[in-house]
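Re: [ENG-882] Designed sequences occasionally contain unexpected residues at chain ends

Forwarding the minimal case from QA. Structure tokens:
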């Protein structure tokens, strides 16, 4: 072996050793920070408290992706305000030894009447966040939805919660790529397929766009000197918010930095799609009713859940196309602004589907346990949590998401005891008797947090 060969091997070994040492150091920092933030989330009394902790831990350009909504964010706020303005009765002199929070939806028995909605890019908040979300959901006896646009392989997520994972499909990359994703989800034993239909174009999320998130993602590769200097200047503008959120930064590096879309295989060799602007991905993956045929054929007999339904006409069309369930949803106000809040959609459109054999769920604006009770009173079988569990996940990982679910469960149980209902079935069956008209009008709503 020549001197140069030996020297090259020595340099390579030293490089690998340095990489390993750095990785171990970053994992140590992440572990230390995890313990620190676990103590903070333990003191949270509401999901709003958790969101405020997320804002402290996560850089604005990252947190805004999860907070923001379309255009003037009117629908996002009204999603929340619709629940804030809803009121119920309270029956006195009733005491229950125990409560029954169970519900059944698309043949899944849930121990709590909510599920974790699919949310993209969770891994930008916390290392392997999708696996954590699945584990926490399973511990509480409910389902987690996994977005196509996530960074943890679906096999790892499914292994964390066997039989309690739904895969949410976007048609990123076209029909062949989507079919590979469906078949892969079947092999991983996902127990439901969610098809989102409200992404004909990407929502105009103005606040996030002003932060220029594409700058953080753009590579220097292929750029001329002048372009590289301009891009470097733009990237340096992000530096202050990164270095002032060191706990997040260390965790981000410990998790390998920029993720890829691990669940989008662009070819038969298993090549994954690089991370890119999610708005662009959504715009290129619009679903039409014609797509439901081949999607259902590829998926097979498992539950097909259509999400993003605003009206009874679309709900009926989903049922005619073979859907097992519908999720009433306006995408958290992130797609189209100035559409009705989801709670009002449910109130207006659910009665028109009285003869349907499908199951119905909803999401949008649910921030606490009383919101869950109010949603159930309109007859839906389960409620999707999005930003509410993201708040906990971003604030403290597993401890934070667990705390979010603990808070919501305690609030729901307290509300049930005060309203005077023992079970989820009783809430659904007696909803009209539980609800009361709000005579205060729109004169006052609490401060909007998230």
């Amino acid at each position: 072996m020549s001197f140069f060969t030996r020297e090259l091997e020595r340099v390579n070994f030293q490089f690998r050793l340095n990489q390993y040492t750095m990785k171990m150091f970053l994992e140590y920092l992440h572990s230390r920070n995890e313990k620190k933030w676990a103590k903070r989330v333990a003191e949270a009394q509401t999901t709003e408290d958790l969101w405020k902790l997320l804002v402290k831990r996560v850089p604005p350009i990252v947190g805004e992706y999860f907070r923001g909504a379309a255009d003037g964010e009117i629908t996002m706020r009204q999603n929340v305000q619709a629940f804030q303005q809803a009121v119920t009765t309270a029956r006195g002199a009733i005491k229950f030894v125990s409560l029954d929070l169970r519900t059944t939806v698309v043949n899944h028995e849930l121990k709590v009447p909510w599920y974790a909605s699919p949310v993209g890019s969770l891994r930008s908040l916390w290392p392997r966040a999708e696996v954590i979300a699945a584990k926490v959901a399973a511990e509480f006896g409910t389902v987690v939805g996994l977005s196509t646009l996530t960074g943890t392989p679906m096999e790892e997520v499914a292994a964390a919660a066997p039989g309690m994972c739904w895969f949410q499909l976007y048609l990123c990359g076209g029909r062949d790529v989507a079919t590979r994703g469906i078949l892969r989800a079947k092999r991983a034993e996902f127990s439901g397929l969610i098809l989102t239909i409200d992404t004909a174009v990407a929502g105009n999320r103005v606040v996030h766009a002003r932060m220029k998130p594409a700058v953080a993602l753009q590579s220097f590769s292929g750029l001329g000197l002048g372009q590289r200097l301009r891009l470097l200047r733009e990237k340096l503008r992000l530096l202050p918010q990164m270095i002032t959120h060191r706990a997040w930064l260390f965790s981000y590096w410990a998790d390998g930095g920029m993720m890829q879309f691990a669940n989008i295989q662009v070819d038969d060799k298993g090549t994954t799609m690089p991370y890119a602007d999610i708005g662009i991905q959504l715009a290129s993956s619009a679903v039409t009713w014609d797509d439901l045929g081949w999607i259902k054929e590829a998926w097979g007999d498992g539950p097909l859940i259509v999400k993003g339904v605003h009206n009874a006409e679309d709900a009926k069309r989903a049922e005619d196309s073979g859907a097992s369930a519908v999720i009433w949803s306006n995408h958290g106000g992130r797609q189209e602004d100035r559409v009705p809040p989801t709670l009002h959609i449910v109130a207006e459109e659910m009665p028109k589907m009285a003869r349907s054999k499908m199951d119905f769920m909803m999401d949008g604006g649910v921030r606490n346990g009383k919101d869950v009770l109010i949603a159930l009173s309109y007859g839906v079988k389960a409620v999707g949590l999005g930003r509410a569990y993201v708040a906990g996940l971003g604030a403290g990982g597993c401890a934070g998401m667990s705390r979010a679910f603990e808070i919501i469960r305690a609030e729901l149980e307290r509300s049930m005891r005060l309203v005077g209902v023992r079970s989820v079935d009783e809430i659904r069956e007696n909803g009209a008797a539980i609800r009361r008209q709000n005579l205060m009008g729109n004169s006052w709503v609490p401060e909007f947090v998230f």
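QA comment: On inspection the terminal residues look reasonable. Residues 260 and 274 are 5 Å apart (CA to CA). Proposing we downgrade this to a documentation issue.
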